[in-house]
C-alpha cells in the first residue's frame, strides 16, 4: 500500500515516516532505549532527520517486526516531504555550525589534541557535543583520569642509540604500526575511522552501538584483511546477545571486547539536558521547536509533566544491557559462542584484573566510566606493582584525550601496557562519515 500524508497523520497508532517509508512504532514505544516521548514527538510526521542522527540504517530491520513496516509514501507525498525538508529554515544550531565550518582553521594548523578539541567544540552539533563531552556526576574521575598522568614523572636515560626506533607492536596476533588502538565510542561516524585506521596501520575497536551497521563498517575496510575488533554490550536477552556475536563473527571481526562497567547508565547531565537546551534555543529565536512538520499535525503538550529521559543519548546505548553478568556465568557463555580472543573492558582495580586472569580472558582494558573510579593510569601502576605476574595484554583508555597524547602514551607504555586507546576520535554530525581525522 502507498500512503498519503493525510493518511499517516490520521491514524491512531504512532506512525512515523523515515526515508519515505511508513512505520508503526506503537508497540515498540516501551522498548525504545531513548524513551517513548522521543518517538511520539514525530508521530504522524517525517522523522528521517532525527532518526538518521542516532540510528544505524539497519536498526529498523533489526528491531521492528516486518508487519510494522507499513509501506511507502505515494509519489506526491514523498515529493512534498522532500520539498518541506529542503525549504525548511535551518535551526540556530545548524546556522552556528555552518558558520564555524566556514571559519575553521586548516588541518595543518592543528598541532595537538587541544587544538582539535577546540575546533570540535565549534563545529559539532550541540547534542552531539553534549553526548561526547559529558561525563558522570561532577566529572571528578573525568578530570582525574587526565590529572593522574601529571602525578607520574619520567627518569629519562641518556647516551643510548635512538636513531632507529620501531614503535610497532602486536596485540592478540594483530600487528599494529604504533601501540595505539581506537577505543570504542558509540555513534562515532565509524567508516572514516575504519579508513583512518587502515591508513595508519592501527586496530579499530567498533562499538556495539555504532552509527552504521556492523556490516557497513566491515565493508568500509579498504582491504578485507584489515583487522577490526568488536566491543560487546551484552543484551540481557541471551538470544539477542548471541545474534549480535554471531553477526560480527560472520563479518570477520577478530576479537570480542566485552564491556563490563556500563551495565547501568551514568548520570551525564549535560547529555540529558541537551534536547531541552536546543528546544529553548530555538524557541527563543523563532517561537518554534526543531523538526519537520508534515500533514498539518501539531501535538498539544500533555497535561501531565513528562518524565525526563535521564539516560540521555549515552544511556540509550546500554538500556538493554545484562545487569547480572558474572565471571562464572558470562565468560563461559561467551567462550562457548566464539573461538575469537576475548578481552574484558572496564577493569578498575587490581582485584578484578586478577579475577579476569583467572577467568581465562585474553586481555583486559583498564578503563572506567567515571563516578569516582580510580584513574586508569593509577590502576595500571598498582597492577604492575602488586601483581606483575599477571597479564601480558593490558590496554588502557582513560584520560588520554585530555592531555597531549604522546606524553600519556609514554607514561602508559612505561608501565608496560600493551597498547592504549583514545575514545574521542570522531564527531557525529549530520553525515554518517563526518569524522575530522588529523
Ligand atoms: C562519547 C563516548 C562514547 C563511548 N561509547 C562507548 C561504547 O560504545 N562502548 C564502550 O565500551 N565504551 C565506550 N566509551 C568509553 C571509551 O571507550 C573509553 O573507555 C572511556 O571514554 C575512557 O577513555 P577517555 O577518558 O580517554 O575518554 C565511550 C566514551 C565516550 C566519551
Description:
The chain has 4 domains: 2-87, Flavocytochrome B2, Chain A, domain 1; 92-123, no CATH class; 140-265 and 319-437, TIM Barrel (Alpha-Beta Barrel), CATH 3.20.20.70; 269-310, no CATH class. It is built from 18 helices and 13 strands. Helix 8 (126-133) runs antiparallel to helix 13. Helices cover 39% and strands 11% of the residues. The longest helix is centred in the middle third of the chain and has 18 residues, at 269-286. Residues 131-132, 145, 183-186, 207-209, 231, 259, 317, 345, 367, 397-401, 422-424 line the site of flavin mononucleotide.
Estimated share of beta-strand residues: 5-15%
Largest sheet: 7 strands, parallel
What is the CATH topology classification name of the largest domain?
TIM Barrel
Catalogue the unreliable spans. Answer: 291-300, 426-438
N-C termini distance: 48 Å
Anisotropy-based shape: globular
CATH H-level superfamily title of the largest domain: Aldolase class I
- List how many beta strands DSSP finds: 13
Radius of gyration: 23 Å
Work out the helicity level: 25-40%
- The class by helix and strand makeup works out as alpha/beta
Bound molecule kinds, no repeats: flavin mononucleotide
CATH structural architecture of the largest domain: Alpha-Beta Barrel
Q: What is the CATH first-level class name of the largest domain?
A: Alpha Beta
Rounded mean pLDDT score: 84
Q: How many discrete structural domains? A: 4
Q: In order across it, which strands form the biggest sheet?
A: 7-8-9-10-11-12-13
